[in-house]
Amino acid sequence: MQEWIRRQGSRAWRAQWPVYCEFMFFAFLDLLYETIRALIAPDTSAIRSAVTNAHNVLRVEAALGLGMEAWSQRATGAIAGGRFVTTWYYTLAYTPLFIGFFVAMWLLRRANYAFVRNWFWMAHGIALVVFWAYPLAPPRLAKAGLIDTTKHALTLGGALDWFQHLRNEYAAMPSLHIGQSFLYALTLYWLCAGWGLWRNVWWILPVWMAWVTMSTANHYLLDGVGGVVAILTALAIVNWISAADIPRPWQATTPAERTDTLGTVRQRAGGSA
Fold this sequence. Notes:
This protein is mainly α and 273 residues long. The protein has helices spanning 2-14, 19-39, 44-64, 69-78, 82-108, 110-133, 151-155, 176-191, 204-215, 221-241. The longest helix has 27 residues, at 82-108.
């Protein structure tokens, strides 16, 4: 039984199974993430602490000259169609982005898929710890004088408004909207090495998402910084615990060796690895 569990764990970590298994695994992890995030939401007495943390973040940004949230909202509102585009991008883009990204990875860069998927979910695990330890009210709930531009879109069903009361709305730090966009951009930057300077176009994704989240009063700039830190921390962890033959997106996709578990190299005939 122990050997069977070990092998199944290795298959899951390496995504060495049919696509329907990967779909179910992804759905399970997403449901688990959303459930835990809701369970660790601050109770009524702790919401005041989340608002206090928000004001502390605003003070730090002001001291560093990084307080861009109000300015980005005003600038967006001054552009014809700016509020419409940012509102609906924030409301609709999150889920289609990660679905499209991982479908493309599975179909086009299968060798790198498992590493990137594990990196993605490791970052979510790190984020859950921070959500629990440091509840943070987003700008729209912090009484910071900013308008919640997504509220009307949600009532129209753009992001399933009926589901909002089941979510943790005090989990602004780190911003996985920005963090995930950074993960996509960094992965695509590595995979598109043949594009030359044109591969830098992918950095538009996190920059644009940072603007969108601030202009819609859903995140602070420092939330985005936190999201990038979570992604880089997860990258370091997954790179450290993954076996050498699991191709990293910055490496060649041909595995040098076969392995059975995360760090144990299968013994070769006639000797040990």
